[in-house]
Amino acid sequence: MLLIDEAQEMNAPVLCELRLLSSARFDFQSLLSVILADDARLTEKLRREELVPLGSRIRARLHTESASREELLGCLEHLMAEAGNAGLMTAGLCQTLCDHAMGNYRVLTHMAAELLTAAAHRQLDQLDEKLFLELYGPSQQPARRKTAR
What we know:
With about 150 residues, this protein is mostly helical. The chain has 7 helices and 2 strands; from the N terminus they run βαβαααααα. Helices cover about 50% and strands about 5% of the residues.
């Protein structure tokens, strides 16, 4: 199995080669299964004449929309509960993460993982908005000193 993320960035000749690799045994036995993860641009690209043979061989397509704030929050709560610490993050931090995830589960889990790493280094029992601001807030620039003349 081959999983390709950001498949919309692949050029047409490479996509054509994937079609040939996945049908090496003349379509009666598949040697290679390919999963293309992409945004909506790949669908448009597969309409080009040279890629129609590949587009016609795609067996299943799953189109996902941006997740709602409630869906992201449900995911985050589920992940914490399954990890054995449902109270790992304050409710305010959970809301803040969901607001900043832009409807994207990967962004949500990436930010949560970075917060967890920082909390582990600091030996914190609970993650909160203060930690979020330390990692993702505007950087604090040191004040410039006036020099005496």
